[in-house]
């Protein structure tokens, strides 16, 4: 049995400048740091590739 992928919002910290951002785990767009432009999440077929440091998952 395959578990259903659960989409969540993640609190991600930029590895470069420390700025925090909220990223949807299944984002369909690349997410870049608002402060320095570092890529924080990269879209993929299903679950996004999180490149920043995941601080926590936010419940909806
Ligand atoms: Zn940054």
How would you describe the overall organization of this protein?
By secondary structure, this protein is mainly beta. It has one domain (9-58): N-terminal domain of TfIIb, CATH 2.20.25.100. 0% of the residues lie in helices and 40% in strands. The chain has strands at 9-13, 20-24, 31-32, 39-42, 49-50, 53-58. A 3-stranded antiparallel sheet has the order 2-1-6, with no helix packed on it. A 3-stranded antiparallel sheet has the order 3-4-5, with no helix packed on it. Strand 4 and strand 5 (49-50) form a beta hairpin. Bound molecules: zinc ion. Residues 14, 16-17, 19, 33, 35-36, 38 line the site of zinc ion. Residues 14, 16-17, 19, 33, 35-36, 38 line the site of zinc ion (ZN).
Identify the overall geometry: globular
Q: Kindly report the average pLDDT value.
A: 91
Q: Name the CATH class.
A: Mainly Beta
CATH level-four homologous superfamily name: Ribosomal protein S27
Number of domains: 1
- Biggest sheet, in brief? 3 strands, antiparallel
């Amino acid at each position: 049995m395959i578990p259903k992928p659960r989409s969540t919002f993640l609190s991600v910290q930029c590895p470069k400048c420390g700025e925090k951002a909220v990223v949807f785990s299944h984002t369909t767009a690349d997410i870049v740091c608002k402060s320095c432009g570092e890529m924080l999440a990269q879209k993929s077929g299903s679950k996004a590739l999180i490149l920043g440091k995941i601080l926590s998952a936010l419940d909806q």
